[in-house]
Amino acid sequence: MRSAIPISVLLVVSLTVLPLRAAASSDDVPDQQTIDALAAKANQAQPRDQCFLYAQLMQDMSELSARQYAAGNITNASFLLRQIQTLSRKVHLSVAENDKRLKNAEILLSRTAFRLTELLHSSDYEDQALIRQTIADVSQAQNAALMQVFNK
Predict the structure, then answer these.
(1) Please, where are the H alpha helices in the chain?
(2) Distance (Å, rounded) from C-alpha 90 to C-alpha 7?
(3) What's the pLDDT score for residue 9?
(4) Each residue of 108-124: b (16+ CB within 10 Å) or e?
(5) pLDDT band for position 46 (50/70/90)?
(6) Under 8 Å CB-to-CB from 39, ≥6 apart: which residues?
């Protein structure tokens, strides 16, 4: 009986601490090298994998753009937003019936649109037009992915 209590405590601790640690590591803001590596991977991936990889890349870029904007690097943040717009068009065109992880891509696009909306609320008036257009482009890509999910 005595050995059952420490084992159960260890089990409970490991089941609660490890997922929290994994979630904390996924909240890290990516750097430019990580984004460049993911972009290269997405461009060379099979067509059925590209939609998800582009969505993941867009989410990473939105996080980095928000961080750049908060740091006062408006030029870099604007550049990333324009790249997101380009990628959202690629996602919109690459959505197909045989996509792997299409629902996951749609969820990532939803999170990206939400993050960009947060950025819109904290941005200056001069930057809001670019952010609004980026949100619209991401939302169109998300809608295309969602429609394809429901068509399956």
Answers:
(1) 4-26, 32-44, 47-70, 74-94, 102-122, 128-151
(2) 51
(3) 47
(4) bbbbbbebbeebeeebe
(5) confident
(6) 57
